[in-house]
Design brief:
The protein is mainly alpha-helical. It has one domain. Helix content is 71%, strand content 4%. The chain has 2 helices and 2 strands, in the order H-E-E-H. It has a two-stranded antiparallel sheet. Strand 1 and strand 2 form a beta hairpin. Helix 1 runs antiparallel to helix 2. The longest helix is centred in the N-terminal third of the chain and has 36 residues. It starts with a helix and ends in a 12-residue tail after the last helix.
Length: 96
């Protein structure tokens, strides 16, 4: 591996580390946002105590699940892009 190639590989690795770290931070922030807006004492607190089970499911999807799923889907997409990148150095096998 030439110095230029090694430099490019190192730069790509830094970018990938930054991207996946940012994606994980987004997931953590989504969790924090959900806790701050939809929870009481770290427990989900639906706004309507008299809601039916169907209404609770709808509220849970809106308040928690959809927001968290969006952040997770974005992080997964970034991870897939990094895994598929031809620039990404592959770990060497023990036999190599």
């Amino acid at each position: 591996m030439t110095d230029d190639t090694r430099h490019l590989a190192d730069e790509a690795e830094r970018r990938y580390r930054y991207e996946i770290t940012s994606a994980m931070n987004t997931v953590i922030r989504a969790c924090r946002h959900i806790l701050n807006t939809s929870a009481y004492a770290n427990t989900w607190a639906p706004p309507d105590r008299g809601a039916t089970a169907t209404q609770l499911v709808s509220t849970a999807r809106y308040d928690v699940l959809s927001k968290l799923q969006t952040a997770i889907d974005q992080a997964e997409a970034i991870a897939r892009i990094i895994d598929a990148s031809p620039e990404r150095p592959r770990p060497r096998r023990r036999s190599e």
